[in-house]
Structures are given as structure tokens and as C-alpha cells.
Design brief:
It is a single chain. The protein is of the alpha/beta class. The chain folds into two domains: 283 residues, Aspartate Aminotransferase, domain 2 (3-Layer(aba) Sandwich), CATH 3.40.640.10; 113 residues, Aspartate Aminotransferase, domain 1. 37% of the residues lie in helices and 13% in strands. The protein has 17 helices and 13 strands. The strands form three sheets. The chain has a seven-stranded mixed β-sheet, with helices on both faces. Helix 5 crosses helix 11, helix 12 packs across helix 13 and helix 15 crosses helix 17. The longest helix has 28 residues. The chain starts with 5 loop residues before the first helix and ends with a helix. Its cofactor is pyridoxal 5'-phosphate. One of its GO terms (biological process) is tyrosine biosynthetic process. This is DEKNAAC103082.
Length: 487
Amino acid sequence: MGFLDPVESAKVPAFAHEHLIAKRIRNRTHSQFWQSIDPPPGVKYHEKPISLVGGMPNHGFFPVTKLDVHLASRPFAFDSGSIATVPGQTTNESELDLQTALQYANSEGQPQLLNVAKSFVKRVVKPALDDWDVSMTLGGADGIGKCFNTLLNPGDSVLFEEFTFNPILNGCREYGGTPVPIKLSKVLADGTLGRMDYADELEDMLSNWSKRYPKLGKPKALYTIPNGHNPLGVALSLDQKKRIYALAEKYDFFIIEDEPYAYLNFSPASEKANYELTNDEFIASLHPSYTTLDKSGRVARVETFSKIFAPGSRLGYVTAHPQFIRYIMTCNDILTRAPSGLSQAVVNNTIVRLGGLEGWIHWITLVRNEYLRRKNAMIKAFQETDAFKKGYISPIDPSCGMFISLKINLPEERKTETISLMEKYFVKCRVEGVISVLGGNMAVDKEYSKERANFVRIAICYPEDASVLVEAANRFGRAAVDLFEEL
């Protein structure tokens, strides 16, 4: 599927938010060098012409004839429980073969993997729109960048949670967007169970926008990591999402929902963990998506295979209104073309070998279980440290994701020194032998957020097992004791 072909566009349901689409997108035209000419009256074309149009090499030129992918039965079980095959050719409609995967392809992705993604979204995410669509991307960052490309004109304002995965700010600025931070005052002020509540702060911002930001136009979009926030690890409640979506409707901005961590969903460390969830129980435990509230088409949900399959696959997808997806596909056509055919074949055929959709959901549950074990082990280890018992630190028990935020409870009278004191804590952690990310380094505006930057982000994903995280918690604790003894 190429650019906005008039015949194809006529099949797309009406989109109520064309005014939010960037001018560059609406001005794009489709250029092609091949054509089809209708036969003149009385002329009949050959029924089986020899087509020499496409510059596609015959599959006989491909040096690979078959791939065997040895699969683990569960995370950290390097036992090659079964083999997923990518054959040279196949008659199995759910599989991708090398003849197809190694060839040029449509920019929205191979039909087999698109069907997997659509089935997954229907089964797990459950969008409220009567009609929605999916386009494959080259991972989450690529999907977000294409959303920015689709929405932003130079000078447009974009709302961000004040702490965020701030490399994504570069994608916003690339298309002329101006990031504006939303204060997260409640997240770090509510003990060890963080709250991702900011609807009040956002409503106050929007109702006073022209006074606070006289040089900026009203926001075009909100970029949010609502479930398993990076860096904070917390999730927005459904009530908060409803309020924020209502604000989007009232103040007319688009929502870009970045969801790399939503399926790594946790129960609190204080509760007995359930590692035997059925697929239905797992799905019911997940935090609802903004797409479950969206009936007007102002939400794009960006997903990735990086956290539940592998980052090197460079695969993800965007779910949104069909017309928005067609705009995303124009970005694909111009910027990247189709995602890697080999990656799509390996991921798709692995899912087929795991048992299709239900087997894939089960695998994701197993991945979630391992992260839950790690998270609980580290939270409990923090709670055993002298630093925790003395009130120097508060680990925020994450709702989902790969990160634990450790709050350093600096004295109120030293709040103005937060950045320098946190840098001092970072040095003491290095002396103890543990490294993390300073919260201030993940701020949209470090000066704006400096007094709320009294935390570090701890990644629980790379160590080989939970014992490493337990030792790390002890080191973080000793560094905190050392810091407070000098205050």
C-alpha cells in the first residue's frame, strides 16, 4: 500500500482530527514510474504477460534457503525446547517463508505478522474504536518518531511528563516541536507506592496556558508512557486516564501512548505473587490503554517487540484510526520502507511455533514472571537496609516495567541543593560499586524539575539473576547512609 491513493482512501472511515495533521503529511504526493494503460477499444491484452516491471531479484539469487531458530522454553532456559523454521517456500498461510521475507515488501509490514499484531490488539488491548488499523514499524522509537512526523508543524507544543525517556525529545524537536513538561508532584511525594497522578496539574496548565506560555500555541499532542513509566515505573489509574482523555477532547490535542512496558505488569511486593496466571487472568490484570477510551480517533498506541522478544529485532507497530495509520505508512514509504523481512519472519514464525496468539501471550506472561521475581527481590532487599529503616531512602514499588525508582529523602531545607546532592550520592554509589541513572538527567527541563529530581532510576533487566539486584540494593543503601552522615 503506497501513498494516499484516492480509491483506497475512499475505503477509510472519516477522521475527525485532520486539522491536527502536519502540513508536510497532507501535502505529500505519490510519485511512481510505472503505469497501466487501459486497452483501446477492440484491443485485448495478453492473459499471461511476462512482467519485467519490478526491480526485484528472483529468489534464486538469495544465498539463504532455510533458517532454523532454536527456542527457549522459558526465559533463562537455554535448552532449545523447540525449533521454529523459516522455510524457503511454504503453503502455511500463517508462516512467512524466505522467498517472501527476503524480497521487497509493502511498507506496512508482512500480512502474516500484521495479522498477529491485529489479533493481539483485539484480544489483549481491546480498542474502543469500531474501526482501527495497525502498521508495523522499526521498533518503538521509530513509531513515536513517525507519530511526531505525522502531527507536528514547526512551533507546535508537545506535552511530556516532566521525567521521561528523554532521548525521545530529540524526535519531537526534529520536526520543530517544543516540549513542555507536566509537573509530577504526587509521584514522588506518596511514600513507596508511587502515584502517576497529574490530571489536576495538567488541567491547571491548560486552563492557564496563554498566561503561562504566552509565546507558545496550544498543545498539539501529549506524549505519555502511562503504564510502567520510564523512569518512574508507575502507572496511571483508569480514572486518571479518563480525566486526561477528557482534557484532550476539551483542549483538542492528540495522545501518543508509548507502551513498551505495559505487559511487564506487577502486583505489589507486599502481596503474594501469582506466577500461574492463565492468559485470561493475565490480560485482566493489565492496565487499560487509552485506546479503550478513544472513540474519536485521537490516540495512537505505539508498541514494540523489544521488551518481550528482543531489541535487535527492530520491530514494533502503531495502532490507531485507519486514516492516521495511512499517514504513518506515508512516513514508512519515505523514511524507512518496510521493516526487515528477516526480523519479521523470525518473530512471526517463532510466534507460530509457540502456539500462535495464545502461545505468544503465555510467553509474555513468563517474561513478566521473571521481572516480577526480580522486582520483588530488590524491593524487599531495599526494605532490609539500614538506609530504609532510618528513612533515608524510599524504593518506589513499580506497577510494571524494567525500572525501580529509588527516592532519596533529602531534608526539606536542602531541597534547593537536590541536583548537587544527588550527584554526590551518585559518586558514593560508584565508590560502593553500583551505577544507576540520576533522575535529573531524565527531566524534560532540568531546571524546572530540579527539586523533584531526588531519585535514581535502577534497571532490573540486564543482570543474570535476582541475587545481583539484592547485592546492588545493599550497595545503594550503604551509599545513602554515607551521604546522610555528611549532611
